[in-house]
Automatic annotation (TrEMBL):
It is found in: Nucleus. Its main location: nucleus. Residues 100-126 are annotated as: Disordered. Coiled coil: none annotated. Keywords: Nucleus. It comes from Papaver somniferum (Opium poppy). One of its GO terms (cellular component) is nucleus. Residues 1-52 form the TFIIS N-terminal domain. This is TFIIS N-terminal domain-containing protein. It holds the Pfam family Med26. The lineage of its organism: Eukaryota, Viridiplantae, Streptophyta, Embryophyta, Tracheophyta. GO terms for biological process: brassinosteroid mediated signaling pathway; regulation of DNA-templated transcription elongation.
Length: 178
């Protein structure tokens, strides 16, 4: 079908054939080959009917300046430099999260993925000797805890089975008696 002529495009719009072919391209009852053929027809006919260009450059030219600003705008990143303000900020966030969790609002709403943001690069220098000392202390505490646990197990009174064993007439479990 030649869609270059204006009256052919108008005839195709008014016939409703495009709607039927679109339905067939999405229908599960159609065979795969028919769906593919219908989809190809929709792709071939839709741009001339709606006067849309097939070139991406033309689509970019039609964007308004406002649309471009919205597409390329980044939200401002708020950075908190004061440590006390940062702690207060984190505490309030957790409190709000707990309140929402209790009320059930968060569980009923859908959670979406969020865009990762760069972490603020506010690092402080820590003495390496202090880190090593902390690691040794933690290791020493773990070792002491394991030793205490083992000593408590050894000190605990060992309970013996005071229940009499039941002997069977066939002689099973006889070795328990002697």
């Amino acid at each position: 079908m030649d869609l270059e002529e204006l009256y052919r495009r108008e005839q195709l719009k008014s016939s409703g054939l495009g709607k039927v072919i679109m339905f067939l391209s999405r229908s599960d009852e159609e065979t795969a080959s028919n769906r593919k053929l219908a989809k190809d027809l929709v792709d071939k006919w839709s741009r001339p009917i709606f006067n849309k260009s097939t070139r991406f450059e033309d689509a970019r030219k039609h964007l308004d300046d406002d649309d471009r600003v919205l597409l390329y705008r980044k939200p401002p990143v708020k950075r908190i430099t004061d440590k006390t303000a940062m702690l207060d900020f984190k505490d309030t966030d957790l409190d709000e999260f707990k309140r929402e969790r209790k009320s059930g609002e968060l569980s009923s709403s859908k959670q979406h993925a969020s865009k990762p943001e760069a972490a603020p690069l506010d690092f402080t220098k820590i003495d390496p000797d202090e880190i090593i000392a902390r690691a040794k202390q933690v290791e020493h505490d773990k070792c002491r805890a394991q030793i205490r646990k083992k000593l408590q197990q050894l000190k605990a009174p060992k309970k013996k089975l005071l229940q009499a064993s039941k002997l069977s007439a066939e002689g099973r479990d006889m070795f328990k008696c002697f």
